[in-house]
Amino acid sequence: MFAIHLTAGTYGTALNQLKYPYGIALDPIKNGIYVADNDNHRVMYFPVGVRNDTIVAGNNTAGVTPTQLNKPRGVYFDSISNSIIITNEFASNIVR
Fold first, then answer.
1. Angle formed at CA 20 by CA 24 and CA 35, multiple of 5 degrees
2. Domain 21-95 -> CATH class
3. N or C, which terminus of the chain has less Cβ within 10 Å?
4. Domain residues of the chain, as ranges?
């Protein structure tokens, strides 16, 4: 069991905020979680006990370039390849 540090009841674009999160995946190796932050067009990583979380995919701008996501809905952590797999809804693709 672990806790992540989010601002309760508010949404936004800060590193400790989400805007319509959809998917979540546990990373048992690092003991943290990945969250598909749908309306911020990014995937966040929330490590245990750290207040400044990390953007691991996307850049808060909707798009289809290699550095952008467009409404990510799901995220899966593949422990064999140590990578995340993202369903990128409005771009109609899967991103690793």
1. 20
2. mainly beta
3. N
4. 21-95
